[in-house]
Amino acid sequence: MLLRKMWRDLSKNKAQFISIFLMSFLGMFVFVGIDAESSGAGESARSYYTEYNLCDLWVMGAGFSDDDARLASKVKGVKDVEKRLSLTGTAEKYDNAYMYVNFMESDNINRLLLYEGEPFDGQRDGFWLEEWFARTNNINIGDPFSVKIDSQKIDGRVRGIVDAPDYVYYVSESDLMYPNYKKCGLVFMAPSMYPDPENIIYNQLIVDVDDDHASDEQVSVIKRKVEDRFDRDDIAVTDRDQNLSFATFDAEVRQHKAMGAMFAVVFVAIALLGIVTTMARVTSGQRIQIGTMKALGFSKAAITLHYVSYGFIISAAGCILGAFTGSLVMPAWILSMFEGSYLIPDLHGDVTGTDIAVTALAILVSTMVSFMSCRKELKDPPAVTLKPPAPKKVRHSGFEKSRLWLRLDFSTQWNIRDVMRNKLRSLMGILGVMGCAMLLVCGFGCFDSIKGLMDKMYGELMTANNKIVLSSDADADYAYDLAVRYRGQMIEEKSVEFVSDTAKKSGSATIVDKGNFIHIQDRKLKPVKLTDKGIAMTSKMAGLLGISQGDHIRWHFVGDDKWQYSRVEQIYRDPSIQGITMKRDVFEDMEYTFAPTAVLTNKSVDPSLSEEDEVSTVLNIEGMKAAFSETMEILNAMVYVMVLAAVLLGVVVLYNLGVLSFVEKTREVATLKVLGFSSPKIRQILQKQNLWLTIIGIIAGLWAGWGMLYVICTTVSDTLDMFPILYFPTYIWSVGGTFLVSVSVNFMFSGKVKNIDMVDALKGVE
Amino acid sequence: MAEKKVLIEFKDVCKKYVQGEHEFYALKDANLSINEGEMVVILGPSGAGKSTLLNLLGGMDSASSGHIFFDGEDLTTYSDNKLTKYRAENVGVVFQFYNLIPTLTAYENVALMRDIKSDTSDPKEALASVGLADHLHQFPSQLSGGEQQRTSIARALAKNPRLLLCDEPTGALDTDTGKEVLKLLQNMSRNRKRTVVMVTHNSFFADIADTVIRVKNGGIRSIEHNDAPKDADEVNW
To answer: In Å, how far are A334, A638, A698, A699, B2 from A447, measured between CA atoms?
Structure first.
C-alpha cells in the first residue's frame, strides 16, 4: 500500500520529480556518455597499439648502422630493434601533398595495418600508402605513385593500403595544427627504393621492450640504459609520451574526460539540490501523515524507507536511463567527429567500471540526500509530529534593526524575510540561474575566443593581406623577385623537433626576413620586438618542454640530421603556431641557407601568379580565417551541447523552483488577497524576489562562466594557446538569454496568482 | 459479577515540558486504571491534559516520570522500537480529523494495516462493518466527513487492537453523523469486548461510558463508574 501511496505522491508532484529525473538523466548521460567515449577511444587505441606493436622508444640521431641496432637490442629489457629512415617529401601529382616517408627493412615493430593489397615486404619495390590519403585522393592498388624528396623523385606502384600505429595523428608543416590527411600523406617503402640504396643512412631506431605491458617507470629505466649504451651527444631517445601521435591522442582523450566530469558535476549538483528541496517539501507537507503512520504503528525504519525510496527511485531511474542512453549516443556522436583527425581503426565506446561506479554513487548520494531531508520529520515521537510544526523561529538580522530597513516598503521587507527563511530554495534558484548564465557565457565565449584568436593571428601577429606560398620548385631568387615586386616580406616555415629533459615535442620554426608583417607579443600580449640574438620560443611550447627564458633547448629541423643546442633568448605568445621564431641573420649564423617558403604582402596579388609552377597557392586573409574555423568542429559541437544544456538547466531548475515557492506561498498569497491586495500587486511582490535571485545568479554566472572558459581555453590542446575572450554582445546574449528563461518561467507561475481561491487556500492544512 | 481484568494502570505519571526556563506540567501525578472491555470517556476542557493522557496511553509520547502499565508491562521502560511494536500490535487510533492518507482510497487506507500487522481483518469486511461497503474505492476527498471518520475507525479496527483510542472522534462531525460514530464505538466495547478510550470535551458523552475520567489543569479530578450507561442513540447534544 505504501508503494501505491508513493506512486500517487510522485504523480502529484510530477513537475519536481520530473526535473530531478531530468537532471540525474542529463548528468549521467553526459558523464557516462563522454567517459564511455573517451575510455572506449583510449581502449581502442591501446589495443591497436598492442596488436600492431607500437614501439616503446624512439632513438633519433644522425645515422645508425646495423651495429648500432645490435647495440641497442642488447640492452636488458629490449626485445627488438628496427632501423628506419624517416624523411619528408611531396607528392606532386596530388596537389603537392606533404608526405611523411619511411624507409625500412621490416615492420615487426610498428606493424602496418593492412586494409588492401599485400603485406609490407622489405625486399620488394613499391609503396604502402596510408588509407585515408589513398582513399580521399582516389589512389588504388597497382596505381603508379611518386614522391619527391629534396628534388629526387622516387617512382613506383602502390602495393598496399595501410595504417600505422605510430602515425594515428600527424600534420603537415602548412596545416600546423589540424590534420588534413588528404593533403598530408604517409608512405612506407623498402630501402631499395631509396635513390642511393647502397648508401642509405638510417636516422631512427625504433625499440620494442620485452614486456608488452611495461609500466612507464620500467620503460624509462630502459630508456636511460639505451642512452647510456650509446653515450653520444647527437642522439635523442624519446618515449611514447614525447611522441606527437601518441601524446596528442592521449591528451584528447583526457580532455574529454575532464569536460565530461565538469558537465556531470553541474547537473548532478542541481539534481541533488532538487532532491533536497523537493523531499523537504514533500515530507514537511506530509507531516501529519507521517505522524499518523507513526501513531498507527509503522516503525521509523518503514517510514524512512518509504520516503527515501522517492529519491532513490527517481534518481535511479534518471541515472540508469541516462547512463544507458548516454553510453549509446555520445560515443557514436563524438567518435564520428574523430574521423579525419585520428587514424585509429575500430573506434568505439566502452562502458567502464568507473561509469557503473559513478552512476551507483550518484544514486547513493541522491538517496542519502533524500534521507537527510526527511529525517527531520522522523525523529520526534508521534504525539509531536501529529501537531502542526512549531512556527519557524524568525530572528531579526542586524540589517532589520537598521534604519534602512524601516524605510523599505512592505514588499521588499517581505521578500527579504522570505529569502532568509528559505535559504536553500533561494540558493537553488541562484545556482540554477548561475548555471544557465555560466554555460551561456562559456558557450558564446568559446565562439568569441575562437574569433579573437583568428583576429589576433590574422590581424595582429600576421598583418599581411596575402600570403604567397611557394612550391618546392621556387628557388631563393624567385622569392627575392616576388618580395621586391610586391614589396613583401619573405619567411621560411619549417617543422622542428624539440627535446628537453622532460619532453619531446614537434613544433614549427618561422624564419623571418626584413619586413613588417610578422609581429610577436610577450606573455601579457604586449607587442615586443623579436630578438636579434637568437631564437624566441612560444610560451606554450616552453611550458610543454618545461623550460624558461635563458634555458637551453636541443632541437633540429625535421628531415635534417643536424642538431642544435640553443639558448632561448625570448619567450613570446602565439595562439596557434607553437615553436620558435628567429631572424634570418640568426638562422644564417647557424650555417643554414635561407630558403623562403612564402612571401607576405599587402598588395593585391595578380591572379595569374598562382598558375606559376613556383607558386603553390596564394592565400588571402579571409580564406585563412575560414580554413581555420573549419578546424574547430569538435569545440563547436561542445558549445552547442553547452548552450542546449544551459537552457534546459535554466528551465528545469526555475520551473522546479517556481512550483516549490508557489505551493509554499499559496497560503500567504491567499492571506494577502483577503487583506485586499490586488492580483497584479501580489504578482509584483513575487516577481521582485525572482528578479533579485536572477540578478545575483547572473552576476555569479558571468564570473563562473569566465572561469570555465578560462579552463577550457587553457586545456584545449597542446598546439592552441587560446586566451579567453568575451565580446560585449556575449554579455548581452547570456544575460538576456538567462533573463528570458527566468522571467518566462516565473511569469507562468505568477500568472497563477489570479487563480488562487482565497477560501480554499485558507482552509485546513490537509 | 465476575472480577474484571485491569488492562491499563497509571502510577504517578507526569508529563513535563521545558521551554527555556519555564517548566510546564501537561499532566501531573496521574493515577488511574482501566479495565479490559470498558468504554472509557476522558472529559475536560481544552488544555486540561486529555490529549497528553491519550498520547501516553497510545505509546505516542513518553512520560517524564511515573509508570504506565499495559497488561502488566511497564511502557515507560520501553525503547522506541518496542513502543512502535506496542502501537502496531495493541493500539488502534481514531483521530479528530481522521488523518487518512489522502493519496490512498478507503480500501487502501485500511489495507495499509497489513503492512504492520499480520493478523488483520479483511479490509472489505472492516469497511462493511462501518457501513462503507459501497465506498471502497473512493479517495478521502470524495468522502463526507462521517464517511472519512468511519473509514478511520475501520482502519483502527482492522488491526483487531486490544485498545481503541479516540481523540474527539465526533469533533468535526454534525450531530447525526456523530451519533452513528459513537454507536459504532460503543458496539466495539459492548459486543466485541474491546477497550475503548475516548477523549472529548463534550460532557454529554459521559452518559454512554462505563467509566468517566475528568481531567482539569493537568490533574485527574475524578473517576466515576457508571453502572447503567446509556445507548449512544439516547445521547443528545
So the answer is: 19, 11, 20, 21, 94
The number of folded domains in chain B is 1
User: Residues with Cβ < 8 Å from B98, sequence gap 6 or more?
Assistant: B140, B145, B148, B149, B151, B152, B172
How many angstroms separate the CA atoms of A87 and A89, rounded? 7
Query: How many residues are listed for chain A in this entry?
Result: 766
Buried b (16+ CB within 10 A) or exposed e, B164-178: bbbbbbbbbbeeebb
Question: What is the DSSP-derived secondary structure letter of residue A461?
Answer: I
- Is B138 near chain A, with CB under 8 Å? no
In a domain, B236, yes or no: no
Contact A742, A734 (CB under 8 A): no
Q: Are strands B91-94 and B163-167 parallel, antiparallel or unpaired?
A: parallel
Looking at residue B229, what DSSP letter applies? P
Distance from the Cα of A301 to chain B's closest Cα (Å) equals 10
The one-letter code for the residue type at A134 is A
B133 touches chain A (CB under 8 A): no
Report residue A588 as a C-alpha cell: 644564417
Average pLDDT score over residue span A102-131 = 93
Q: Quote the ipTM score.
A: 0.84
SS3 track for A662-717: HHHHHHHHHHHHHHCCCHHHHHHHHHHHHHHHHHHHHHHHHHHHHHHHHHHHHHCC
Closest among B128, B123, B84 to B107, alpha carbons compared? B123
- Residue B219 grid coordinates: 490533574
Q: How far is CA A170 from CA A150, A323, A343, A418, in A?
A: 20, 34, 9, 60
3-class secondary-structure state, position B213:
strand
Q: A 397-426 residues with CB below 8 A of B?
A: none
Top-confidence residue, A515 or A277: A515
Q: What is the domain extent for residue B157?
A: 6-230
Residue B237 lies in a domain: no
Report CB contact under 8 Å: B55, A766: no
Residue B41 lies in a domain: yes
Contact (CB, 8 A) for A156 and A189:
yes
Chain B CB contacts of A302 under 8 Å are: 115-116
Q: What is the pLDDT of residues B52-95, one digit of tens each?
A: 899 899 988 889 999 999 999 999 999 888 888 899 889 999 98
Report d(CA A457, CA A476) in Å as an integer.
26
**Could you tell me which residues come within 8 angstroms of residue A638 by beta carbon, excluding any fewer than 6 positions away?**
A259, A446
End-to-end CA distance of chain B: 33
User: B92 vs B152, B185, B210, CA distance in Å?
Assistant: 10, 12, 19
Closest Cβ opposite residue B112 in set A1, A9, A384: A1
Mean pLDDT, rounded, for A459-463: 87
* Contact residues on chain A for B117, CB-CB shorter than 8 A: 297
To the nearest whole angstrom, how far is the Cα of B115 from the nearest Cα of chain A?
A: 7
| φ/ψ of residue A64, rounded to 5 | -125, 135
Residue A455 is predicted with a pLDDT of 85
Q: What angle do CA A140, A145, A148 make, to 5 degrees?
A: 145
Chain A and chain B share a number of CB contacts under 8 A equal to: 90
Q: Does B149 touch chain A (CB under 8 A)?
A: no
What is the CATH classification number for the domain harbouring B179? 3.40.50.300
What's the rounded Cα separation, in Å, for the pair A692 and A690?
5
A383, B61: Cβ pair inside 8 Å?
yes
**Which of A700, A559, A49, A141 lies closest to A342 in space, CA to CA?**
A49
Is there a contact between B58 and A295 if contact means CB atoms under 8 Å apart? yes
* Cell 486529555 -> residue: B50
Nearest residue in A to B93, CA atom? A296
The answer to whether position B181 is within a domain reads: yes
**Greatest alpha-carbon span in chain B:** 55
CB A278 within 8 Å of CB A372:
no
